[in-house]
Amino acid sequence: MKLVVMSDSHGDTDTIEAILTRETDADAIFHCGDSELASNLELLQNLHIVQGNCDWGAAFQDSALVDVAKERVLMVHGHQHSVKQSLMQLKYAAQETNANIVLFGHSHLYGAELQNGVLFVNPGSTTQPRGHRDATYAVIEKDESIIVTFLDPLTGNVVEEANFTIK
């Protein structure tokens, strides 16, 4: 299974186009909000996308629950789940929805962690990274293990990779 995850593109279509052009073999593509684009934009039509705190007037849902290749994926932006403080509210949301992968943005800081069999991934921001980090998006690949790779949205070069063993 391969998932492509981006967030916080803030009106920039060049990075979204570059990612979509490169990642043609994904099982699903997600945008965790703050696209600041119109919901009827053709570029977004094949993406699972949610409402961010900067998506004023857009017709996106607050959350998405998507089943992909035997995985249940919960996606939110994160501003309504206090992700800048902790993952606690996301953990509860994962339990309530039986999600084993949780995708979120909002903080503009990429990262991944596996807790009690649930994978939490923030892809960072494609255009406005924080914390002296690079602009990124994430690719999640899962078979016997999970590999989360954070890549530069324009070049596709690897910024960082995390490996998790599923038990």
TrEMBL record:
* Record's keyword annotation contains Metal-binding: yes
Instruction: Give the source's domain of life in one word.
Output: Bacteria
Keyword Metal-binding belongs to the record: yes
Q: What is its EC number?
A: 3.1.4.-
Listed cofactors: a divalent metal cation
One Pfam family this sequence matches: Metallophos_2
Q: Which leading EC class covers this enzyme?
A: hydrolase
- Alphabetical keyword list: Metal-binding
Domain Calcineurin-like phosphoesterase, chain residue ranges per copy? 1-143
Give the matching PANTHER family.
VACUOLAR SORTING PROTEIN VPS29
The UniProt entry's sequence similarity note says: Belongs to the metallophosphoesterase superfamily. YfcE family.
Q: What is this protein called?
A: Phosphoesterase
